[in-house]
Amino acid sequence: MADVQVQEQSKGGKKKPKKGDARVDMTPMVDLMSLLITFFMLTAAFSKPKVMEIVLPEKIKKNEKVEPPKIADSRTLNIILGPNDKVYWYPGKADPEVTVLQETDFSATGIRQVLLDRNRALFRKIDQFEKDVIAGKINIKQDSMRSAISQLKKDDDTGPIVLIKAYKTAKYKNFVDIIDEMSIVGIARYIFTDIDWIEEKLVVDAIGRSAATTPSGSAQ
Amino acid sequence: MPKIKLGHKSPRIDMTPMVDLFTLLLTFFILTATFRPQESAPVDTPFSVSEKPMMDANVMTVLIAKDNRIFFNVDNGPDTILKFRPKILTEMGKRYNIEFTEDELRLFEKTGTAVGVPIQDMKKYLASKDSDEKIALEKGVPIDSTDNQLALWILFTRQVNPAADAMIKGDADVEFPVVRKVLDILQDKNVNRFNLITNLRAAEVTEEQIAE
After folding, report:
1. pLDDT confidence of A19, banded at 50, 70, 90?
2. Interface with B, mutate which of A176, A177, A179, A182 (most B CBs under 10 A)
3. Is the pLDDT of residue B34 over 70?
4. N or C: which end of chain A has fewer CB within 10 A?
């Protein structure tokens, strides 16, 4: 197919017919094509960005008289996204006199540890469930695994209810990170709410405190 | 002793079937490769552990650039005959008493880039050939309460294509209040389910951490 057939020229009979047929060397073409194929394959496989789904509760309209749901103080964990990739948290209800914000960060030993401490029971349950599925103890279809896990989360009544708030200088990155932590640790209930003035004041205090301790720490 | 005769010519491998196969594969990959239009503003998306791939059609994307400019993008729908983009632009034009010509609508349909211009500048933007001029016009979609064009874009997108899912593609360093405002606008239009576009990063909770 690739051989170019050289036709004998009989016209006039002056020219000598060429011997043998001209072959086209296909190797460079193959080289180029494999290169292109590799390129297109890789771009097709890796170019797709991922998405993270979040669902926010419906807004309560101003003229509607709907009481926001009440939750127990003992199960609440408040997380405030602070400036400079810092996270502040406190349990229960904010009291300007008593509450002291704990400062931590987004590393594996930071906020994840805090959440894990409070959510250990549920996390174990989910982890055990996943292991059982892999080991073949529980026979379940891949599609229904997600709903089974979300059912486990729904039935949970010991884990924390996390309220996430953002201070005004928090970055979008922090927002994504904290939702990420929720899914890593398997928190069943978390909600995004606006920060209130008490918490804003607490954050300002906490920033002031850490600013006061840092210079003395570096002087030592 | 009889001698084994060796051929004088080096053996040639016929590459033709290989070329055939490669051409086929190449054609396949070129055709399946989705053409991604040039983004108007560079956006470094944050990382997350989510492994859900992004949907191809039925999406409206709100881009938040590093300098807090807002861009809005919407696709043509799963089928090219649906032509969602020109329909949405026509609705938008009607609201602001701007009539877009057939050519302008077609141009808007073809270019898949995000809208980053106020609707008043849209005609000028579509007419300009120079890319520098286009960039200069891209001041971002207004989101303040006096002229909330983003809300209208969302509203008309939902009217034209009710199946459209909201995507948010924000730069990692955007300050949160801007994101909150975009979320608020979406929620005002009864969009409560968002997809945040992120890059994949692995994260695991180790055994020790559970056991502790």
Report:
1. low
2. A176
3. no
4. C
- CA distance linking residue A87 with residue A105, whole number of Å: 5
Q: What is the ipTM of this complex?
A: 0.74
Instruction: Please give the Cα distance from B23 to B18 (Å, whole number).
Output: 9
A81/B192 Cβ within 8 A: no
Residues of A in contact with B22 (CB under 8 A): 30, 33-34, 37
pLDDT at B85: 83
Chain-chain contact of B199 with A47 (C-beta, under 8 angstroms): no
Tokens of B14: 């016929």
Q: Label the pairing between strands A102-105 and A86-91.
A: antiparallel
Closest CA to A81 of B50, B46, B181, B175: B175
Over residues A99-120, the mean pLDDT reads 78
Question: Which residues 34-63 of A have a C-beta within 8 angstroms of B?
Answer: 34, 36-37, 40-41, 43-44, 47-59
DSSP state of B59: E
- pLDDT score recorded for residue A4: 53
Q: What is the pLDDT of residues B161-203, one digit of tens each?
A: 888 888 888 888 888 888 888 888 888 888 888 888 888 776 6
| Contact yes or no for A180 and B48 at CB 8 A | yes
| CA atoms of B78 and B55, how far apart (whole Å) | 10
The domain limits of chain A are: 73-117+160-211
As a CATH number, domain A73-117+160-211 is: 3.30.420.270
Structure tokens at B96: 């602001």
B15·A2 Cβ contact <8 A = yes
Q: Which residue of A has its CA nearest to B178?
A: A172
pLDDT at residue A46 greater than cutoff 70? no
Which stretch of A187-196, A210-219, B129-138 has the lowest confidence by average pLDDT?
A210-219
Interface of B with A in 94-123 (CB under 8 A): none
Backbone angles phi, psi at A12, to 5 degrees: 80, -35
Given a cut of 80, whether residue B38 has pLDDT beyond it is no
Size of interface A-B (CB pairs under 8 A): 163
- Give the 3-state secondary structure percentages of chain A, helix then strand then coil, rounded to 5: 45, 15, 40
Tell me what pLDDT residue A220 has. 37
Q: What is the CA radius of gyration of chain B?
A: 25
B11 touches chain A (CB under 8 A): no
